[in-house]
DNA sequence: CAGTGGTCTAGACCACTAG
DNA sequence: TAGTGGTCTAGACCACTGT
C-alpha cells in the first residue's frame, strides 16, 4: 500500500509537469485538496511540503501555493538519483562504459579516512557518455561487507537498481563534497579535454537506512559541461 | 512569540554542536522529547524533520535518531545565508570591499531574461576576502522597484540584514545555478589567479515571500578555494 | 514483549490576504 | 468578512527493532 501523501505528491508533480497546473498559477487550496484526495489536511500539507522542498511550488500565506517554473535540464548533485532514473525521466541518450572492475580496498587518503581503516571493496570505474560525449568518470568503491560481488553486467546497468531491487538494500543518505581541480592526464584522455582544463569532483559517502556504510564515490565531471541547479529557501542555520 | 518547533530545533542544534548529544549517539526518543519540551509528538517531529533536512541527524525506524558528524567548514550554496551570518557562526576573518556601486538595468543575457524585460536595478560589485585572501566576487543587481536606494555603507555590511531588518522585506527563495568557466582578465586580476585558471560561477535569482523579484546575483569563486558539501537523502524525483 | 519511528486523522486557533 | 496557509494538539494504528 502506497503512502497517501506520496500518492498526492506524485499526482501533483505529474499535473505540474504536464501543465495541468501551469507555472505562475495557484494550486487548489489545501481545503480543496483535502476534499479532492479524501485525506486530512496535515496529510495534504505533507505532500505540499515535498513539492516545496523540491522547488515545484512556493507557498504564500493568505493566498495559496503558486507553481514555479521547473528547470528540467539540471544535473542533480543534490539528491541521490541514478543515471538510470535520469534516463527514464528526461530523454538523454546515456551510455555507460565499464572501464575497470577489480577488488581492492577503499583508498584512505582520497576519502579522508583514518589510515588504520582497511575496508575491502569492489572498485568500479565507469564512463558516462551523454549524446555521444564523454561527460563523467565515476569511481565507485562498494563495501564488500555489504555487497560481496558485482558483475560487469550489473556495473554496466544501474548499481542502485541492483542494490535496491536485487539485494533489497535501502539507501539512506549521502554526504557529498564538491570541488574543482586541474584534470590529471588520465582524466584528460578519457574525457577528451585539453591539458590545463579543470574538472569538477564530487566525492560522496553513501549510507544505508540502518546507517551502515555502503559506498564511496568519486565522480569526475568535465567542467565545461557541468551545471547544477538548486532551489534554496531562506532558513536559519 | 517564537514557534515551538523552531525553539526545539534550535535547542537540539545547540546541544548537538556543543556535543551534549555527541555524534554517533542517539537523541532521546520522540516520546521523551515530547515530555522534555511539553509539546505534542507532531511538533517534536517537525523539529526533527528540520534536523534531518539539514544533515544533523539520521532517523532509523524502530531504533531512534542518530546524530551525524557535522562538517563546519563548507560553503553553503544550498540555503540562503549571508556572509555576515557565516561570520558570526564560524570565526572566519571575513572582510568585504565594495568595488562598484551604480545604477543600471539587469543584464538580460547574463540572467537568461527576455530581451524585452528592462529592470532598473542597483548594481553592486563586492570582493569577499577571507583570511587575507580574495575568494569571491559578488555581482548583485537589486531591483529598484523593491529597494530604491542602497548606500555604500549598507553594501559594505550585509544586504540581507538591510533587507530584512531595515526594509522589513521577507526573503522567500532563490533558484541557483552553478557552473565552471575560465576566468576573465578582470577576474584574474581581482582574485589574484593565473591566466587559464577556472572560476566557479553561482548565479541566483532571489524572490521575496510574496514572490516578487528582489535580486539577481552572480558570485565568482576562486575554484581552488571552492568547496561545498551537501547532505542528500534518497528520494524519488 | 515494550519501545521506537512512520502515517494519518479531526479539530482547533492564529495571521495573513482579499473584496 | 470569508478564505488562505501556519501552528499545535491528542490520539490512533502500523511496521520495525531489540530483548
From TrEMBL, chains A, B:
It holds the Pfam family GntR. SMART domains: HTH_GNTR (SM00345), UTRA (SM00866). It comes from the Bacteria. The keyword Nucleotidyltransferase does not apply. Residues 2-70 form the HTH gntR-type domain. CDD domains: WHTH_GntR. GO terms for molecular function: DNA binding; DNA-binding transcription factor activity. GO terms for biological process: negative regulation of DNA-templated transcription. Keywords: DNA-binding, Transcription, Transcription regulation. Signal peptide: none annotated. The keyword Cell membrane does not apply. This is Trehalose operon repressor. It comes from Latilactobacillus fuchuensis. The gene is treR.
Amino acid at each position: 500500500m502506497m503512502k497517501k501523501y506520496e500518492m498526492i505528491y506524485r499526482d501533483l508533480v505529474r499535473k505540474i509537469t504536464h501543465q495541468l497546473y501551469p507555472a505562475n498559477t495557484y494550486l487548489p487550496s489545501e481545503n480543496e485538496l483535502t476534499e479532492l484526495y479524501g485525506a486530512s489536511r496535515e496529510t495534504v500539507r505533507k505532500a505540499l511540503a515535498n513539492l516545496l522542498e523540491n522547488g515545484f511550488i512556493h507557498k504564500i500565506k493568505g493566498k495559496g501555493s503558486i507553481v514555479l517554473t521547473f528547470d528540467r535540464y539540471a544535473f542533480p548533485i543534490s539528491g541521490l538519483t541514478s543515471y538510470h532514473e535520469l534516463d527514464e525521466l528526461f530523454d538523454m541518450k546515456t551510455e555507460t562504459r565499464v572501464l575497470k572492475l577489480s577488488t581492492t580496498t577503499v583508498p584512505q587518503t582520497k576519502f579522508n579516512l583514518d589510515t588504520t581503516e582497511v575496508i575491502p571493496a569492489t572498485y568500479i570505474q565507469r564512463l558516462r557518455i551523454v549524446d555521444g560525449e564523454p561527460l563523467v568518470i565515476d569511481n565507485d568503491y562498494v563495501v564488500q561487507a555489504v555487497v560481496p560481488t558485482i558483475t560487469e553486467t550489473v556495473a554496466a546497468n544501474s548499481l542502485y537498481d541492483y542494490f535496491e531491487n536485487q539485494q533489497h538494500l535501502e539507501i539512506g543518505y549521502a554526504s557529498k563534497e564538491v570541488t574543482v581541480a586541474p584534470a590529471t592526464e588520465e582524466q584528460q584522455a578519457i574525457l577528451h579535454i585539453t591539458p590545463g582544463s579543470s574538472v569538477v569532483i564530487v566525492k560522496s559517502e553513501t549510507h544505508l537506512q540502518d546507517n551502515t556504510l555502503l559506498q564511496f564515490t568519486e565522480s569526475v565531471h568535465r567542467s565545461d559541461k557541468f551545471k547544477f541547479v538548486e532551489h534554496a529557501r531562506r532558513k536559519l542555520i
